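Q: Hi! First time doing this. I have a protein sequence and I read that you can turn it into a structure. Is that right? Here it is:
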Amino acid sequence: MLTRRRILHAALAAAPLALPRAAFAQAEAWPSRPIRLVVAWAPGGAVDTIARRLAPKLSESLGRPVVVENKSGATGTIGAADVARAAPDGHTLLAMDNTYAMLPYLFQRLPFDHATAFRPVTVSAFSPVMIAVHRDAPWRDLASLVAAAKREPERITYGTGGIGSAPHFATAAFAQAAGIRMLHVPFRGAGDAVTAVIARQVDLVMVSLGSALGHVQGGALRVLALSGARRSPAFPDVPTFPEAGLPNLGPNGEGVVNWSGLAAPAGTPDAIVARLQADVAKALQADDMRDFLASIASVPGGMPPAAFAALLAEETQRWRGVAETSGIERQ
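A: Yes, that's right. Below is the predicted 3D structure, encoded as structure tokens:
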């Protein structure tokens, strides 16, 4: 199984997947009409924003309009179910994120087979996850926060976007790795949880850096640690989790890394999947796309389908242990 370090390396160095000319020739008749790119989340989030930046580039390379359509609700399962039911002809795609790997542990029953409903195409972007506190919080680093939580279990509070949300899973994984117990305070969304930290209603939040970048840059939030193999160029003074004293959080100790990507219905032909991956990888290397991703503290993906499938399988297995240990119950 691929390690996260190897997967991220593959993503950063991704190039269009090389296939024999005959394989691409099989897909010459595709696309024959506009392509629906279904975003399983509301407009304005990271997955939606990245999809809308990619859509015009894919429209240009494929010669057909790529139309983004939001179908939000039920933690992304409504949009995913819509794509799972679509014909596997490359004309309907799903913009998914790492929440997909958590779905088996959130619901007793899903409206599709989680393991077989989709063909992963590629990751579009990776985003580091941060632990942030109020600028005036007493903890100056991650070690002091962990020490305080050990002294007084469940005294420190953390906000998330709701029970079973990606920030809930991420913070539960952090608490397990640190050997601490904190009090969970769920909100309607991750943005509300960030606002609650700024208002000093809760002590900390663990979300993607891009989702609260303005608050960090403006000084309202202080970041104690960031996930990833190396420090973010945008915040060179912020340590990674291993540097902050937590080397056992996630594969290789790099912590939780959010990602967004594209998938197609199961049964979509190899040639179409390969063409999509190649065109997305090329689009992600465009200067304007790289600049946009950097502006939201993300790095481009572009990995081959097999590497994306390995990442998804690895993460799905990983979150099983977090759900079981943290007592996250299926709905």
